[in-house]
Write a structure and sequence with these properties.
The protein is of the alpha+beta class. It has helices at 2-25, 27-30, 36-56, 64-75, 83-95, 100-113, 116-129, 133-145, 151-171, 176-192, 197-211, 214-217, 220-232, 236-249, 254-275, 282-289; strands at residues 304-306, 312-314, 316-317, 326-327, 331-341, 349-354, 360-365, 379-383, 386-394, 397-406, 412-414, 417-418. The strands form 2 sheets. Strands 3, 4, 5, 6, 7, 8, 9, 10, 11 and 12 form a 10-stranded mixed sheet that branches. Strand 11 and strand 12 form a beta hairpin. Helix 4 (64-75) runs antiparallel to helix 5 and helix 14 runs antiparallel to helix 15. It is elongated, with a radius of gyration of 27 Å. Residues 1-6 have low confidence and may be disordered.
């Protein structure tokens, strides 16, 4: 009789812990997002009920490693570090080093404490016992958070991060959380490896796969990080929607609310400054209009330009009004800087230009070296400009402007001189989650 009690008690506790995590993971599948501010409290209440159930049968659980693992895992259900959970899980892996769940949960404890290397050791230990998607995707995230002394090591870690996430996806192609982690890894690689467009495309594809899984779809992190990517792509309406969704799903996430507010302020500033031509007075605008000269085009003058590949490009000077949305091959525009636009993000450098006809556009320059910028009155020529048009409303905010996106300052001619590689610097993207 006594022997029958042990497995029964263990199974009861396993089921209780599984139900606790299912309640957390499926909260928004079973509840309206209007209850987002109640989620943490309800999870805490369920956690206490689960702990009480485990404690009520703890003397019947003869496998002490399993007892410590189950109790430690239940205490680890929230996003906050719990020292009692850490102590239980440390005892569990010491008593039975083959407990993969205990290694994974202990790794998350270290992660919450900010001890990234210790977390990585735990996830590596779990994979060594059994290759599993949870350990692999957690390894993918910690690899991107490891401190490095040089960019080469950072790039190597990110490349390995992609591979770990891919392994997790291959183990279970229907798991949206693994797809989401893969999307983050590709996004980090996009910025670390020369901003190859294929990495951004792969990132967006992974996010789409993640969005097909209800569990991942209601993850605030997914919407936040995809919103960061949308902002970089200057798909601003989708970016605002993403930050808003992230904050709606997790009202305690101040960073999501801050990003939403910052982007609104940035877009509002662009809209107002483009419309007001940088708030320039008519007399000053007349002076700028009369200051244009042929030499402003620099190497882009003369009807053609020899690119870095050695091939010649035919270039026709045109006014801003002659540009079309999207790419404008074989065209070149020149304008005068009327203002710069400050915002919370280091990327992109944003300013407003007017052309001879005094039409005003915003210009966003990526990969610009820290400390470098443009001042009012500078002439700026842009070959084959990429024109983007924004016109939408979001949460009572109205945004309308046109802009030219410049991927590198090396494509610009400023005051008649083409900018060199010394004016270029790589962009840095912050990919975040509760643990990532």
């Amino acid at each position: 009789m006594e022997g029958d009690k042990c497995p029964n008690a263990t199974e009861i506790c396993k089921l209780a812990v599984d139900e606790l995590f299912e309640f957390r993971n499926k909260y928004f599948i079973n509840n309206s997002v209007d209850k987002a501010d109640q989620k943490a409290g309800e999870i805490q209440e369920r956690m206490m009920e689960t702990i009480a159930k485990i404690d009520s049968v703890k003397d019947e659980i003869k496998d002490r490693s399993m007892y410590f693992m189950l109790r430690g895992k239940a205490l680890n259900v929230s996003t906050e570090y719990n020292n009692e959970s850490y102590e239980h899980l440390a005892k569990a892996v010491k008593l039975d080093p083959k407990l993969v769940d205990a290694w994974n949960e202990l790794g998350e404890c270290y992660w919450k404490k900010g001890e990234i290397k210790s977390a990585m050791n735990c996830f590596t230990g779990a994979v060594n016992q059994s290759k599993n998607k949870v350990s692999l995707r957690n390894l993918s995230m910690v690899l991107r958070q490891l401190s490095t002394s040089d960019t080469e090591s950072k790039l190597k870690n990110i490349q390995e991060s992609v591979e770990k996430a891919r392994e997790a996806v291959n183990l279970d192609p229907k798991d949206g959380i693994s797809w989401y982690v893969l999307g983050n890894a590709f996004l980090a690689l996009f910025f670390a490896a020369g901003q190859g467009p294929q990495f951004l495309k792969q990132s967006m594809s992974a996010y789409i796969q993640a969005d097909n899984d209800p569990l991942a779809k209601y993850t605030a992190d997914l919407h936040y990080n995809r919103a960061v990517a949308y902002r970089y792509e200057e798909m601003f309406e989708k970016s605002l929607e993403g930050f808003h969704r992230a904050y709606t799903l997790d009202p305690s996430w101040e960073e999501a609310a801050s990003k939403l507010k910052d982007l609104h302020n940035y877009l509002t500033s662009i809209s107002q400054l483009v419309q007001s031509k940088g708030k320039m007075k008519p007399k000053k605008l007349h002076q700028i209009k009369s200051a244009f000269k042929p030499s402003d085009l620099g190497v882009y003058g003369g009807g053609s330009y020899t690119g870095h590949t050695g091939s010649k490009l035919a270039l026709e000077p045109v006014a801003f009004a002659q540009l079309v949305d999207g790419s404008n091959p074989n065209k070149v525009v020149v304008g005068k800087v009327v203002c710069s636009i400050t915002h919370s993000e280091p990327v992109p450098f944003t300013f407003c230009l007017v052309d001879k006809e005094l039409k005003c556009l915003a210009v966003t320059v990526y990969n610009i070296a820290p400390g470098y910028g443009f001042i009012i009155g500078d002439s700026v020529a842009i070959a084959e400009p990429l024109l983007l048009s924004q016109k939408f409303t979001f949460n009572q905010g109205e945004y309308e402007f046109q802009s030219i996106r410049v991927c590198t300052p090396m494509l610009l001619v400023v005051n008649g001189r083409k900018l060199g590689v010394d004016k270029q610097a790589p962009s840095v993207l912050s990919v975040q989650s509760v643990n990532d």
